[in-house]
Amino acid sequence: MLIDELLMSIGAIIIVLSWFPQMIKLLRNKSSKDISIPFLVTIITGTVLLIPHAIIINDIYFTLLNSCAASIAFIVLLLAIKYRKGVKK
User: Fold this and answer.
1) Where is 89: in which H helix or E strand?
2) Other C-beta atoms within 10 Å of 25: how many?
3) Predicted structure pTM score
4) What is the DSSP string of 7-18?
5) Alpha helix (H) ranges present in 1-89?
6) Where are the domains of the chain?
7) Is-contact 81 27, C-beta < 8 A?
8) How large is the C-alpha radius of gyration of the chain?
9) Model pLDDT, residue 69
10) Whole-number Å distance between alpha carbons of 37 and 76
11) Please, are residues 77 and 36 in contact by the beta-carbon 8 Å criterion?
12) Three-state SS for 21?
């Protein structure tokens, strides 16, 4: 494995795993009052738009990274919307 593939793999794992603490916090607290919905939508949009590019350049790591990141971010978005109901305005 080349150094660039190793660095990319480590980076991809860190990016995907970085979503889990937020997801766990949402599930435990059942509150999303401190979660930015526009931020999540922006991240999801960006990662989804990068997937076709990764496919075109035939980069399986980049494709998997963005697919996983978009999927997990979408789950966090759904949880944030679900638990937004309890937020007082």
Assistant:
1) none
2) 15
3) 0.82
4) HHHHHHHHHHHT
5) 3-17, 20-29, 37-56, 60-84
6) 3-84
7) no
8) 15
9) 93
10) 10
11) no
12) helix
